[in-house]
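Late entry, written up from scratch paper. The run itself happened at the end of the previous shift, but nothing got recorded in the book at the time, so transcribing now.
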Amino acid sequence: LSEALAAARSRLERLQSERVTPGDPTSGIGREGDSASRGTPTVAASRATAAAQTHEAHLAPEVASGVPAGSDTRASGVANHTAQAPVPAQIASVLRSWALAWSNKDVPGYLAHYSSAFVPDDGSGRRQWAEQRRDRIGKPEIIEVRVSDVSVQPVDDGAVTATFQQSYRANHYHDRVVKHLDMRLEDGDWKIVRETTD
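Output as recorded:
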């Protein structure tokens, strides 16, 4: 775990030292299925860098796509920024990281955003829910998740509820919903403890 954190810190520092030019096609975020995304490892690396920088630079609307599946999105700088940023900025950063992991089909990174105390709305156990999420995230060829219009409301015991518009697009399905995530700070990281959709 400490090696992963050190690698994440190094990657974050490297990303922070580089710049993204908005509108520059070489630094933009493409969808995983785009032909431009299927290039050499150099192209994939530049897209990963661009994706991380873009997510750090903008709040809404957020797009999370374009980094090849299997890329490690768990360490997108959230832990490094949360201690200093105001809570709404911390939550926005976590939501970007969550959407990016989902869009990249990075199931371990996606699931890492959920608390071990997370209780699925359907009453299933967390293990069963995680297996279902693995199956659903793994099936589509491409996934694109956008998060926008984020609002953060404090609730009891230092927890917050993040409410936002979520746009989801996959091969043959898309929707737009209002989502609510109840989140709690656990070991310095904001984790999802409950998730509901309007």
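The longest strand covers residues 173-186.
(Scratch paper discarded after transcription.)
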